[in-house]
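ok, trying the design again with the full structure, not the truncated one.
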């Protein structure tokens, strides 16, 4: 090939290469898919999420990080003709334990998102009047399938894909540990005598209270005479029945840099909502002060103050 023709070919190839490289550099980055958004309702202090199974009417499901397995009311288990696995599971509650059957999971639809748990369990029948107020419970499998964002201001539940979710806000990011399937975080509690104690608390979105403290923690720090039958109190109900509590306040609780002043606290005079060494759990009445993002894949709880609009994922 003549030298002049060779030079022309080289220049043309170089121009094509540079043009292609410039085009690649100008190409926009792939954005994360928009989260599926579901409008939830608050019922008796509980976050109730609408979902569908095949062509069913909307089911109202309690959003509950405290449950290791997703549950359905026995009537729905029968209506959907779910197949028994031949196994049973023990549900541990604040006042005892109950056993129930396990079934193959149906496919749930939450707006544009779908999820099929491998297994579901039937809600225990010990308190039919109580359990019939809900169609089921979304347990830990739901939180492992999605990054779950709960916006109590707009009553929106946003379900992000864990693989593409990137948090860019300035909310408080707290590392989570797990006891079994239940997440927990560390917090600093100021006691009535003004001393401060660091303790671990389970995150329980299914509890309608603010803070529940186990009897072992109450006794260790002299928060209430656990053998007293007087004073403001009552019973907390859950799996296994009810247990005796006293209602009080803590001066202050700190979660990272976030401070909650005078949160209500249910002091357990018998039994406990958690096993030692955990102090207790944080329920929805405390969490509702924030936009809550539960990211199980990265083992983190993100709390944003209301009205800051900090919770958009990176695009």
């Amino acid at each position: 090939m003549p030298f002049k023709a060779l030079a022309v070919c080289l220049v043309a190839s170089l121009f094509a290469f540079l043009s292609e490289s410039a085009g690649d550099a100008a190409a926009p980055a792939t954005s994360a898919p928009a989260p599926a958004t579901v409008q939830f309702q608050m019922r008796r202090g509980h976050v109730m999420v609408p979902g569908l199974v095949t062509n069913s009417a909307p089911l109202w499901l309690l959003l509950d990080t405290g449950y290791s397995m997703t549950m359905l009311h026995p009537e729905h288990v029968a209506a959907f003709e779910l197949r028994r696995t031949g196994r049973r599971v023990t549900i541990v509650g604040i006042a005892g334990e109950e056993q129930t059957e396990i079934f193959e999971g149906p496919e749930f639809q939450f707006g544009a998102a779908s999820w099929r748990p491998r297994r579901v369990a039937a809600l225990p029948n010990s308190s039919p009047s109580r359990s019939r107020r809900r169609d089921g419970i979304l347990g830990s499998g739901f939180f492992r399938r999605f990054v779950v964002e709960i916006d109590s201001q707009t009553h929106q539940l946003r379900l992000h894909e864990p693989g593409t979710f990137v948090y860019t806000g300035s909310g408080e990011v707290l590392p989570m540990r797990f006891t079994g399937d239940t997440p927990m975080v560390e917090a600093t509690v100021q006691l009535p005598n003004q001393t401060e104690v660091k303790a671990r608390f389970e995150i329980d979105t299914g509890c309608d209270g603010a803070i529940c403290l186990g009897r072992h923690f109450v006794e260790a720090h002299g928060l209430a005479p656990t053998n007293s039958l007087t004073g403001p109190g009552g019973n907390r109900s859950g799996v296994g029945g009810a247990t005796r509590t006293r209602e009080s306040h803590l001066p202050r609780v700190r979660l990272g840099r976030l401070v909650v002043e005078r949160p209500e606290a249910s002091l357990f005079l018998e039994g406990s909502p958690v096993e030692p060494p955990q102090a207790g759990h944080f329920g929805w009445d405390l969490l509702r002060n924030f936009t809550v993002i539960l990211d199980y894949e990265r083992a983190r709880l993100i709390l944003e103050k209301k009205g800051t609009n900090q919770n958009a994922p990176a695009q």
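Keeping the full-length input from now on. Residues 1-29, 127-132, 310-315 have pLDDT under 50 and may be disordered.
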